[in-house]
Amino acid sequence: MRTRTMLIDADTANEIDDLYAIVRALLQPDFRVAGLSSAQWNNRVSPPNTVQLSQKLNEDILALMGRHDIPSPVGSEMIMGFPWGGSEPRNTPAAQLIIRTARAMPRGRKLIVANLGATTNVASAIKLAPDIIPRMSCYTLGGHFHARRRVWNKDEFNVRNDLNAANYLFNCKGLDLHVMPVNILVEFKFRLADVMERLAGKGGIWDYLATRWLTFSPSSEAWIMWDLALIIAIARPELAEHARVMTPPENTQRTISVYTAIDGAAMQDDWWR
What we know:
The chain has helices at 17-27, 50-64, 93-103, 120-128, 157-160, 163-171, 192-199, 204-216, 226-235, 264-272; strands at residues 4-10, 31-38, 111-115, 136-141, 144-146, 151-153, 176-180, 189-191, 222-224, 240-246, 255-262. It is an alpha/beta fold. Helix 4 links the parallel strand 3 and strand 4.
């Protein structure tokens, strides 16, 4: 089995599903997770320290899974550029780890960067070091794409939390970009009762995942596992459909890969196994 090198960039403290996605990646036999960085969701209804909240959860997950070998650099708390636009990068430890890891990839191999939130860190890394573009594949979760009509809609949480960075990736010629739009995931739900029955009381990371649901949203009987779907799609490509499509019309016109459907039942089975 050929090893795939991956960096995960996550706004972990924002919801529940990020934690499950990170754990799933760490359990994938052919993934070499070379880093887990913290991403911002610094919108006006968020606490002021979103990156630090995510950083704490990232460090907890790695400790509970005994993965002290994996670096967990801090990402940017601020968006790329300014609220009115721009692409000024944020030179953070997270961006620098992306640059170093991509540059260290052997010839013919690409670093996988899995973005589970705003794409500030990876877009900043590319702006700081454009030589890494041919050395990486970027997988992002965000936006809406209606495949039958070929219509984009970027009015979505992850994209809105750094529209400048999202546009930078869409516009980035030569970047191997894969987008999982959120509208294909609305039926991919876990149920609290199943999580409590299967994870609670098992100790370690499993209790941590169960407790996260109870502390974050105890009244939610079900949760869409957005970020987990992206990680499973990377791990097991046969469980998702994708197409080559043009970027949104307001962006540089180029062809990228977009997921158009997932096998939600098979993905659930994958997780529980």
